[in-house]
UniProtKB/TrEMBL annotation:
The lineage of its organism: Bacteria, Pseudomonadati, Pseudomonadota, Alphaproteobacteria, Rhodobacterales. GO terms for molecular function: DNA binding; DNA-binding transcription factor activity. Residues 88-267 form the IclR-ED domain. Keywords: DNA-binding, Transcription, Transcription regulation. Residues 25-87 form the HTH iclR-type domain. This is IclR family transcriptional regulator. It comes from Pseudoroseicyclus tamaricis.
Amino acid sequence: MSLIEAENAEAAGADAGEGRDAATIGVLVKAFRALEVVAEIGEPMPLRDIAKATGLPKGTLFRILQTLTTLGYAAQVEETGFYYLTGRLSWLGRNAREDDLKMLALPVMKALHEEFNETINLGVLEGTYVYYVAVLEAERPLSWRVPTGTRDTYYSTALGRAIAAHLEPPQREALIGHTDLRSRTAHTIKDKAELGRILDAVQEKGVAVDLEENDDGVVCLGVPIFLGGRVAASISVSVPTNRYSAPLGEALTARLQGLALDFPAPD
């Protein structure tokens, strides 16, 4: 029997148990219905509103949402218990999204790399973390290095703050509520109210900064990337503290503020 024939036979056997599996398939349909409702609203929702929108019994919906939360696809706002979707859903389509982002961002990253010869990072938000999609390392003996695919807490990085600051208010509120502030260095912020003020300042100034808050000996400045008017990613410049100075900080800030990275949304 060939591999294809074996696979077809296995599929036929599975079909014979269709009635037995119907309940499982039904749960999947209900789970996706709940996901679609929360995604369409775009902000944290209470259980009762999701139940009303989906037509699902609260008991069934509660079990589904708790399972999605355990799997990391949904989360709850600490203060209200409202449900929202995490960045893990975006991870399912990461490859296509990363290709789009790289195509748009790499020319800008290369220009910054040539101008300043410091490490340039491209990141996206995933839950309470920022994920490094691409990194152009400084061509110097002493430089900050991070492998592509690394994840850092968003609140301690300029890369993450640049995105979080430009989320819609309900999304930002939910993100902060779900954030567990842990010290990365002696300079890492420890208070959620302070985090909110920092993100307000980033939104107003257009540039995020972390001064050795994620890694000792490294200063980072970051700006958001918008797709179709919505924040989707960010670019940051990482500089060792022994090369960082006030004039360099001013030059980087002015350069980053002038980028205006707002691209049409991909089809």
